[in-house]
Design goal:
Blueprint (H helix, E strand, L loop, with lengths): L12 H120 L2
Amino acid sequence: MKPHMLGKKGEDSPFVAGEVLILAHCSSVAEKEREFLIGESVSYINEGSSAATETGSIIDEIMHSINNIPSVMSEISLSSSEQSQGIAQVNIAVGHMESVTLQNATLVEEATSATQALAEQSRSLKQMEHVFIV
């Protein structure tokens, strides 16, 4: 209430009562707004708490995954070593196959030479046979 509105005792009672009612109404509206804001804040806090809990769970999963990295790297290293050994064995086998192939080629050449020599000897024997045929 403003001081210039005050008059003699009792004259301003209806005015004061009206002001009190307006103040009571404003207080009631402010109280409802305060309750709404508190409820909304509680809702935001609950959502934030849920998000923080979920984030904590995700971080725990990430930490678990990070802790497993050395084990996975060890398995990869072991697999790579086994692959290297397997490739080395394949290389040895290919080397043996190449050696056997070369030996076979040599044997084929020798067999071809022997066949040619036998064919030549056979021709010579046939010519000699004509000498003995009467």
